[in-house]
Design a protein that fits this description.
Layout (H helix, E strand, L loop, with lengths): L5 H7 L8 E5 L2 H14 L5 E6 L16 H7 L4 H7 L3 E3 L1 E5 L7 E5 L13 H12 L12 H7 L20 E3 L2 H14 L3 E4 L2 E6 L6 E6 L4 E3 L2 E4 L6 H6 L4 E3 L8 E8 L9 E5 L4 E6 L3 E8 L6 H10 L10 E4 L3 E3 L3 E2 L2 E3 L5 E2 L7 H14 L8 H27 L7 H8 L4 H13 L12 H10 L16 H20 L4 H8 L12
Helix pairs in contact: 2-7, 2-10, 5-15, 6-15
Length: 526
Amino acid sequence: MTQISKDEYALQSPREEHVRKVLVVGGGSSGWMAAATLATALSRDVEVQLVESDAIGIVGVGEATIPPMQKFNRFLRLDERQFVAATNGTFKLGIEFHNWGRVGDRYLHQFGAVGRELDALVKLHHWWLLGRQADGGADYPQWQHCHVAWHACAQDRFAPSGPDKTQLKNRYTHAYHFDAHLYAAHLRRVAESRGVDRVEGIITGVEREGENGFVAAVVLEDGRRLEADLFIDCSGFRSLLLGDALDEPWTDWSKWIPSDRALAVPSKRAEGGLKPYTQGIAHAVGWQWRIPLQHRTGNGHVFASAFSSESEAEERLLATLETEALDTPRLVKFRTGRRERSWVGNVVAVGLSSGFLEPLESTSIHFVQSTLERLVELFPTRAMDPQLRDQFNARTRAEWEQVRDFIIAHYKLTEREDSEFWRYTRAMDVPDSLAETLEVWRARGHLAVDGGHLFQIGSWASMLIGQRFLPQGVHALADRADPADIAQQVRRIAAECAQAASQLPPHDQFIARNCAARETTTGEMA
């Protein structure tokens, strides 16, 4: 390979081509995640500025996350316990789904691997399916019982797992619940400590360059102009840059995910143990989230206006709260889908400004995280390198469609026929990519996704088995074993998982000892 001298490199990559300023448009969780990420990743000679207005509220209903957020926190060099305390946070081992397959059903989408594999080649769910044949399903562990996380959730226990994942006791992982407003405030402190400049103001105009159509500046209500080389659109559903200024087309997915409204309301913290999991409770129309925080419970109801009025939805939500409401429900209207591209010209849209998928699997914050990680990996010059842009858009589209399919499957695989809403989702056609995944699983329990998918075999198996969508056959390599012998081995794994979970401390005790929120002079938690 030909060596390039430092002088020759300087001629090929002059510093004047480097991005010198990035402007984040909008605050909230996504805006301050973007500002903190860029301030951490970029050198000090790149100015990072964020413009937001206190007069414009944030959506702020996303309070649950998934395990990749641990990676994000490590990148930002956040102390986990300080972060949890600052946001009134709790820990999360999975999502418990109620009433999705049939009314009365419950299953846990648990985070982490099974307690122990029986074979290096054949995954445990295949052996579990074979073992069911010996008992006809009676007196046989449920699939979720083969995970330490399920047993921990059943007893409201939590402690972080250890690093050695070859040990059964460490075969789980965790995510977080937190107050979205406190999270944004926490990240603002981090970002500003690393040089981010916050500008208060309302954007009233966008100026574009005539030659290439790039955004040149945003104009504030008082006439100030904020210029930048790269703009990060975190303006929420308004999508001020990508949607309004650049008019990027919208791809609608509402025929597969018909919900278009959410009502959110906080309630008092429930008495007793602190649950280390999110709950997703299906109703006659849509579903309800229940998120335990240190100081309160986050509640919300996602529903479809084509099948329910807003007043009916509010009545459903308030009637099913575990504790007294602390406010009146707040309505959020949304469209399910995404902009065809998230990076156009010198604008990269992050979060709600690029698209929306309902928070059934707690992916809203993750989409922000993965978009920012992708941007850092493919960070451009001032020319906005088209090869990097195209790679970014292709990978972003693939991720969104993969998560879309996972969410659609929850609705499609219901056996409910008690309302027009569930009859619609059960009968609807699905994207070809999801139809193929379900067809391959239905044959012998194989999963037609590759290693790049956010949701892997553990997540899909939890949902598919939990919603009674069982394969018609078993793995050809497992089919030769004795079902009774396999059933006994599965029972031992479930018992080992239960034993490991029983050694964990109660979740509320772990919080109290390690990351309790600070109580203010007003008696509130902060």
